[in-house]
Batch of 2 targets.
Target 1
Amino acid sequence: MKVLLLGGIGAVSIDASKDIIQGGGFDDILLADVNWEKAAKFGAQVGMQPSNIRHIDASDQNALSLLLRGFDVVLNGLPKVFALNVLKAAIESKSHVADLGSPTAELQDLDAQARQAKVTYLAGCGATPGVTNMMALLGAQGLETVEEIQVNFAAFRGFGISPALIHTTLWEFDPEIKERAYYQNGSYHPVSPFSGGKFVDFPEPIGRQTVYIVPHGETRTLPASLKARRVFTRGCFPPRIMRFLRIILEYGFYSTKPIQINGTGIAPRQLLTEYLLQVPEGNYQDLWGYGLQVQVSGIKSRLPLKHIYWTSHPGMDEWGVPGAYTKNVALPLAIGVRLLMEGQQRDFGVGSPETILPASVFFKMLNERGIQLHEKHQEL
């Protein structure tokens, strides 16, 4: 079996690459990235041969298609703007793909082609979406009616860990994002940033946090895949970042309209991103970790039930910084790659984890890597 680590040296995907390389089980592993020097340095650290490291510009569709030929599975760690290119190349090469990004409409447009080629594009296989989808799947199993799914997360990390994660943080509370909504009885209800706030108790040391409705993929996939009547996805970052997000929203820093600084035009959002990347305060955070909680309410044998799931993981003393955060996202991605390699996907085409992966095996592998699932069941 041959696996391609595509863009596998990013702030998050690098931990997934390490899991794949160190865990073995593949006959051939190739690492490809636009930054060849950084990829070569990482390869040397993990014992890869220089011949197994390639340069790739993912905007070049032909080059990408040629690169994927012969690979059984692709770990896609590229920015989500390249996801469509990767899917097109995967269909042509008949390679399965595991990705962190949610299944977008443009990816879904190629679902039929992927199915015809017997290709699986596993989208949104991180922490949230990802682990949360699988928790929701566990909760829905056995219920005759899924009344409501509540997905909650607390992503504790620095703001300026990477350009991609700065973009993600800003995107969650961007006032122009139309996908920020909750689902209820067949309709989506858009909301503004910082709407729908509620207290959620995550495991210590994160503890009680206020979470808000965010534009995550679970709200789009769970109503269809699990027939849920209501779906809410809420999340938060550390309080320091949440305060900052409120301030920049109030002062218009989300604007992409350039302002003039000494005769040079720069958009406030771009200025903010560069600032966060360049100053120590931009990435300062005293507690790194990830809190996930999913509540599934429904009916079984006329009895109203609620299933509550949450995760725990090693702290900073064992996983370090940024590992106490990044491993929670990267390890599910690595597991997705392995399950695709083993042929354990439940379907072909473009799909989210709850439609593709077997829950019991997924959580077993997650537990083996240090992320433990906890559960509580209530009669309502």
Target 2
Amino acid sequence: MDLDELQEETQKFTAKLNEIRRNRNYYLIERDQVQQFYEIVREETVKTEAHIRNIDSQMEKMQDTHRADIRIYLQKVIHLEYEHANNVDSVQKGGEKDRSAEEVNHIKKKAELKKQKLQLKEMLKQEEAEKEEAIATVKGNLVKELAKQREEFVKNHNELLHTYETRLQDLRDDLELRRKMEIHEIEERKNSHINDLLQNFEKAFTEMRNYYNSITKDNVALINSLNEEIEDLKGKHAKNEKDMEEIEQKNIALSEPLE
């Protein structure tokens, strides 16, 4: 790839990177919204649980109040029975007629108190049933709402997870394609470099061979010329020896007359 193609590829990958960053910011905003929804639901759940605890405490207070009322009524009954006993004594002392009337009055009051006690028990049972029904309704609504929120959260989570996995796979595919292209470029540059080295080697080898051939040729010519000179020297040496023999013979021939 030349410089223009590389710049074009760089611009494409820069645009893809910007798009990925925008998508990432969008998904971060969505994640913050989901987190905010989760916090709101959790706060509402905490408030509902606090409301339920308040209702439970109110019911306990009502039960305590009811028990206190029962104790008060029992004390009143005991007090009335005590007064009745005193009245019985006074009636017995005062006369049989007043005693009978007081006994009848006591029986009426006792019956009324028992009736009031039964009514209070019935009212307490009704209130307890109503409170339990209301608590069960609130709990059911909370369970439904939590289940709905959980389903929405799981759905959004799965969608986000699928989207991010898809984008991650796309990025991996792009990076794998880029890696293959870079490996192909490197192989092409390597092959081109190898071819250049081979050509340079062939050129250097040819120049070296021609150089050594020229040196060998010059050496052969020098050797031939030296051989010729040696042959000339040998001929000259033989001629000189022959001349020396002739000179010696002449010297011998000249030395005899001198003697």
